[in-house]
Amino acid sequence: MQSMQTRRSFLGSASALSAALAFAAWQRTAHAGASSTTEGALAMRAIPSTGEKIPVIGMGTSGSFEVAVGSEEYTALKEVLKIFFAGGGTVIDTAPTYSNAEDVLGALIAEQSLRPKAWIATKLSGVSGREAGRAQFKSTLQRLKTDKVELLQVHNLGDLKTQLALARELKSEGRTRYVGVTHYLEYAHDELADIVAAEKPDFLQINYSVVTRGAEKRIFPLAKDLGIAIMINRAFEDGKLFARVKDKPLPNWTAAAGITSWAQAFLKFALSNPAVTVVIPATGKPHRQADNLKAGLGPDLTEDQRASLVAALA
Ligand SMILES: NC(=O)c1ccc[n+]([C@@H]2O[C@H](COP(=O)([O-])OP(=O)(O)OC[C@H]3O[C@@H](n4cnc5c(N)ncnc54)[C@H](OP(=O)(O)O)[C@@H]3O)[C@@H](O)[C@H]2O)c1
Predict the structure, then answer these.
(1) CB of 288 closer than 6 A to ligand 1?
(2) Which atom belonging to ligand 1 lies closest to the Cα atom of 285?
(3) pLDDT tens digits for 200-259?
(4) Atom of ligand 1 nearest to the CA of 234
(5) pTM of the model
(6) What spatial distance separates the first Cα and last Cα of the chain, rounded to whole Å?
(7) Full set of structural domains in the chain with CATH
(8) Comparing C-alpha atoms, which of 83, 67, 68, 74 is closest to residue 12?
(9) Ligand 1 atom index nearest CA of 233
(10) CA 266 / ligand 1 centre spacing (Å)
(11) Secondary element (H or E) of residue 137
(12) pLDDT, tens digit, for every residue of 257-306?
């Protein structure tokens, strides 16, 4: 027991140290790269329905926040959140059906008194019927230790009509500022586009990456036309993109563009589409959070740079 505690506390301080070093490195890079447009600050984009600006790099919680409270992973998540907020991040996406992710997020945010800074997106998920949706949302607020969220989304089009009406009801009651719909697979894009055109939610959350570009066809132009914010999930294809570039060097132009990792290149790719408002990569590792935040600095990619990344992954 003693040795386990000692190991835990060692890992805790090692994690804190690595987080501090990672953040210091992030700051150095941010300021060294503070050229034309950013002055070292995370870029912000406006939500079309209100004009409110949010940082372009957010974070997801699927998998990464599904950990035991008090575990080594939980300790690492404290640093992940510290780095995220210190780097200017605010937007965090979760769901009541990501096992205990809402509980973990709620606990970590409360511990660090981060609620005033956090912009929380969650979902009505896997429920059917208005009363079940209301009960789930009530529980979500308890789990997140808050009385309202910033964005409430209907997950994967489940029970869409009823749950979207409920999300709007909750918006009128002041329990959410925005409503949205989400999906994560391309087969749903056509149906999503029809729904978005008919319902005009504030947000649409969908998958988009350098190898999965279906959203460019209908979804992005439609969202631009109708003034709907786009939140991107799976910009790393749930991490699978990293195996595909394992032995590949970054393209030559990336250094001059201030890009120092494939993660930054993948996130910049998603952000370089003008319809995109925010991207929400998920990680449980402090140094990767610092890495991901760097993608929110500096200018967007040019068409040639985007094409070069597509070719590198082809
Ligand atoms: N239907 C929906 O609404 C829906 C569906 C899917 C996802 N989402 C949301 O979108 C978020 C993101 O999607 P996702 O979690 O599926 O996948 P993702 O962000 O594409 O990839 C996450 C994976 O990438 C790894 N990773 C993160 N940063 C990295 C870096 N800098 N370098 C190397 N590896 C890195 C993570 O591993 P480590 O943790 O080990 O770093 C994790 O395995 C979710 O968490 C969730 O909030 C929503």
Answers:
(1) yes
(2) 41
(3) 999 999 999 999 999 999 999 999 999 999 999 999 999 999 999 999 999 999 999 999
(4) 20
(5) 0.91
(6) 51
(7) 2-312 (3.20.20.100)
(8) 74
(9) 10
(10) 12
(11) helix 130-144
(12) 999 999 999 999 999 999 999 999 999 999 999 999 999 999 999 999 99
